[in-house]
């Protein structure tokens, strides 16, 4: 059963003017009808990239003939998941990943030092922790189902973001970016990550929640 | 456990130019970077009302000091829910509601003749089935938790939408609008409806899924 009390919200809050990937459209969240101005209702308008805040990437993001968001199987975002705490302060690297032995079909959420800050309220942080190219290829070889990260991209700002995305997406992996994992200890969970269903889109904003599995740490 | 196979997606698909409430911002979903034009990635931008497609209304929509979307308890959208099939082709009226005996804390999803069409692909349909003012007040008196409807508003186009929204929202009821219930028979379900978490917002687009309770129809 979906009891509400134990769910942990791992989504960041969307806000007008919030941090976004450099070069992507800015985030504008504005009141276009306001009761304080005499309107009968308040009405908010959203204007932002589909890759804002907590969001998912579809294969179409980097593969021209890849699946788009409305084709995503719900199982990409719903099911058991493992939170892995990454100790490396610079990257999610191959050696550290190997120690965690990713399994086929796993949903892996990587908690890094990115989660030590409320990054969603700050400026863009170019030195965030992201996957290495080798780590991305390894996750694809391991045939994991889903990869989640705690900043705006699986690929670093100074690294080869295209190669990293393509390695995952060509491997059939669905990607969750922009998670807030600061309240999630390492362990096994139930994950529900539901992105907006957007026709033809390369990504979509999402809401994501976690619940520890009983017993935790299995 | 969150097994994926039994979940029914009751969200409509967001599309560029899709139907929206008259007077609200139009729905623009556009590619701002395109691989076919030589970019390294595809990138979609969203520009739309927060009340587009399947979405939730926060109290702030019609109550100036009401809670906004980021304050929504997850339990408003997650938990048991009952799908009620409404026979009246004109409104969700008081007499028919009384026969279904709404209970305190229930999440009620009303399937009407709106669901007989793929309304999300058509023009705005001004004669859609919506709550009557009396029915809205009755649901508030019954202290239901959440009300879901299968078109863009709980209030009709020719009726008193303000009174209907306010009766529900002042009663502490969270509202889901724009559901696709055409594959959901009457009965009891688990509901997961996760709206985007938007600071200060009067509403938010959402993804919603249903799973029949075992045994169904209890």
Fold and architecture overview:
The structure is a homodimer of 218-residue chains. Chain A is of the alpha/beta class. Chain A has a single domain (2-12, 50-212), classed as Putative cyclase (Glucose Oxidase, domain 1), CATH 3.50.30. Chain A has 3 helices and 12 strands. A 7-stranded mixed beta barrel of chain A has the order 4-10-9-7-5-11-12. In chain A, a hairpin with a 7-residue loop joins strand 11 (187-195) and strand 12. In chain A, helix 2 (133-141) packs parallel to helix 3. The longest helix of chain A is centred in the last third of the chain and has 10 residues, at 161-170. The radius of gyration of chain A is 17 Å and the shape is globular. The two termini of chain A are 20 Å apart. In chain A, 49% of the residues are buried. The mean pLDDT of chain A is 95. At the A-B interface, strand 3, strand 5, strand 11 and strand 12 of A face strand 3, strand 5, strand 11 and strand 12 of B.
- Oligomer state equals homodimer
What does the average pLDDT of chain A come to?
A: 95
Proportion of helical residues of chain A: 10-25%
Report the principal-axis shape of chain A: globular
Largest interface: A-B, 63 and 62 residues
Name of the CATH superfamily of chain A: Putative cyclase
Secondary-structure map:
The structure is a homodimer of 218-residue chains.
Chain A: E1 8-9, E2 28-33, E3 43-49, E4 55-57, E5 78-85, E6 91-92, H1 94-99, E7 107-111, E8 130-131, H2 133-141, E9 146-149, H3 161-170, E10 174-177, E11 187-195, E12 203-212
Parallel strand pairs in A: 5-7, 6-8, 7-9, 9-10
Antiparallel strand pairs in A: 1-12, 2-3, 4-10, 4-12, 5-11, 11-12
């Amino acid at each position: 059963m979906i009891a509400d009390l134990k769910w942990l919200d791992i989504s960041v809050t969307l806000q007008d003017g919030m941090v976004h990937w450099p070069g992507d459209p800015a985030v504008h969240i504005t009141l276009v009808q306001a009761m304080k101005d005499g309107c009968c209702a308040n009405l908010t308008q959203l204007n932002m990239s589909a890759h804002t805040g907590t969001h998912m990437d579809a294969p179409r993001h980097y593969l021209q003939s890849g699946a788009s968001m409305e084709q995503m199987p719900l199982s990409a975002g719903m099911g058991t998941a493992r939170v892995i705490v990454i100790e490396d302060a610079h990257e999610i690297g191959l050696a550290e990943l190997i120690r965690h032995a990713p399994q086929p079909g796993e949903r892996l959420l990587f908690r890094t030092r990115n989660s030590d800050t409320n990054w969603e309220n700050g400026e863009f942080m170019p030195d965030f922790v992201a996957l290495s190219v080798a780590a991305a290829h390894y996750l694809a070889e391991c045939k994991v189902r889903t990869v989640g990260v705690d900043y705006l991209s699986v690929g670093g700002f100074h690294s080869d973001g295209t190669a990293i995305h393509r390695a995952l997406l060509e491997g059939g992996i669905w990607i969750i970016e922009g998670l807030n994992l600061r309240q999630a200890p390492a362990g096994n969970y139930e994950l529900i990550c539901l992105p907006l269903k957007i026709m033809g889109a390369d990504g979509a904003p999402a809401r994501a929640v976690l619940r520890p599995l009983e017993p935790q740490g299995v």
